[in-house]
Amino acid sequence: MKPKVFITRQIPDNGVELLEKYYDVEVWGEEKEPPREVLLEKVKEVDALVTLLSDKIDRELLEGAPKLRIIAQYAVGYDNIDVKEATKRGIYVTNTPDVLTDATADLAFALLLGVARRLVEADEFVRSGEWKKRGVAWHPLMYLGYDVYGKTIGIIGFGRIGQAMAKRAKGFGMRILYWNRTRKEKAEKEIGAEFVDLETLLKESDFVSLHVPLNEETSGLIGEQELKMMKPTAILINTARGKVVDTKALIKALKEGWIAGAGLDVFEEEPYYNEELFKLSNVVLAPHIGSATYGAREAMAELVARNLIAFAKGEVPPTLVNRDVLSVRKPGF
């Protein structure tokens, strides 16, 4: 019999088709994630699990999954998974890095441009009929935004996506500053970026873009103190994790003019609604669509399948997160 895999959300067909050669596949067919009680029931009988960021894979769930041997996360981040507990139990954890890098960097730069040039406000102005009502075809002071070309961008987190963002900024002739836990000298030379401390980055940047994982060090990284360091004309972009930014402090900063605007693709909780934040005109919002291109999502599905297939063959999955698990259990069922 084939090992069983439960996929907690519909993913592109290419990934499912690859898996069906090696696994007995069950896909949750509803748009919303499976309720907690359903997920706890499903894991009792499965050998493998395909998860998303909104799936809470904690100790309780792992304790109730005696056959589970591998968790394939359909995302780069995996802060929803108790990796330490999984490793202790000999459960492999994989993710999908690289394949969504360009799509996410594209969206981050789109948010940057959208906020800087007030595109959402301008779109609403036209669609609502207000432009026609005013009867003014063009005015020198209408919807003034901020220049992007030749300005300074500060990138917090200089991994794959941070570096991809820097390459896009380079095409706009921008000065590129970055802060990272460790210096990336090879990358900074190739791209032409400057390694600086966080305070310098915040004070000198016209745009600050976040590309760090969520962990104890980065939770609340951008709070009131950091926002007050930024220029009043600066714009903050977050396509990393919502909890990296203190939302209350951000709302205050946007209302009181500590910064000029923000572009957000991620939030403290998802799905999310905050009336105070969402009423502000100087913020552009997206529902966590950083990797939402046909190409990126299909590539993610393929990588999920490759990880699971490698494990089924007794091979080390190509993007294994918890390599310490190799000393606990060999790959395979």
UniProtKB/TrEMBL annotation:
<dbReference type="GO" id="GO:0016618">
    <property type="term" value="F:hydroxypyruvate reductase [NAD(P)H] activity"/>
</dbReference>
<feature type="domain" description="D-isomer specific 2-hydroxyacid dehydrogenase NAD-binding">
    <location>
        <begin position="109"/>
        <end position="290"/>
    </location>
</feature>
<feature type="active site" description="Proton donor">
    <location>
        <position position="288"/>
    </location>
</feature>
<dbReference type="InterPro" id="IPR036291">
    <property type="entry name" value="NAD(P)-bd_dom_sf"/>
</dbReference>
<dbReference type="GO" id="GO:0051287">
    <property type="term" value="F:NAD binding"/>
</dbReference>
<keyword id="KW-0520">NAD</keyword>
<dbReference type="InterPro" id="IPR023519">
    <property type="entry name" value="Glyoxylate_reductase_GyaR"/>
</dbReference>
<protein>
    <recommendedName>
        <fullName>Glyoxylate reductase</fullName>
        <ecNumber>1.1.1.26</ecNumber>
    </recommendedName>
</protein>
<dbReference type="Pfam" id="PF02826">
    <property type="entry name" value="2-Hacid_dh_C"/>
</dbReference>
<feature type="binding site">
    <location>
        <begin position="288"/>
        <end position="290"/>
    </location>
    <ligand>
        <name>NADP(+)</name>
    </ligand>
</feature>
<comment type="subunit">
    <text>Homodimer.</text>
</comment>
<comment type="similarity">
    <text>Belongs to the D-isomer specific 2-hydroxyacid dehydrogenase family. GyaR subfamily.</text>
</comment>
<dbReference type="GO" id="GO:0030267">
    <property type="term" value="F:glyoxylate reductase (NADPH) activity"/>
</dbReference>
<dbReference type="InterPro" id="IPR006140">
    <property type="entry name" value="D-isomer_DH_NAD-bd"/>
</dbReference>
<feature type="binding site">
    <location>
        <begin position="158"/>
        <end position="161"/>
    </location>
    <ligand>
        <name>NADP(+)</name>
    </ligand>
</feature>
<dbReference type="Pfam" id="PF00389">
    <property type="entry name" value="2-Hacid_dh"/>
</dbReference>
<dbReference type="GO" id="GO:0005829">
    <property type="term" value="C:cytosol"/>
</dbReference>
<dbReference type="GO" id="GO:0047964">
    <property type="term" value="F:glyoxylate reductase (NADH) activity"/>
</dbReference>
<feature type="domain" description="D-isomer specific 2-hydroxyacid dehydrogenase catalytic">
    <location>
        <begin position="5"/>
        <end position="322"/>
    </location>
</feature>
<dbReference type="InterPro" id="IPR029753">
    <property type="entry name" value="D-isomer_DH_CS"/>
</dbReference>
<dbReference type="InterPro" id="IPR029752">
    <property type="entry name" value="D-isomer_DH_CS1"/>
</dbReference>
<feature type="binding site">
    <location>
        <begin position="239"/>
        <end position="241"/>
    </location>
    <ligand>
        <name>NADP(+)</name>
    </ligand>
</feature>
<feature type="active site">
    <location>
        <position position="241"/>
    </location>
</feature>
<keyword id="KW-0560">Oxidoreductase</keyword>
<dbReference type="InterPro" id="IPR050223">
    <property type="entry name" value="D-isomer_2-hydroxyacid_DH"/>
</dbReference>
<feature type="active site">
    <location>
        <position position="270"/>
    </location>
</feature>
<dbReference type="InterPro" id="IPR006139">
    <property type="entry name" value="D-isomer_2_OHA_DH_cat_dom"/>
</dbReference>
<keyword id="KW-0963">Cytoplasm</keyword>
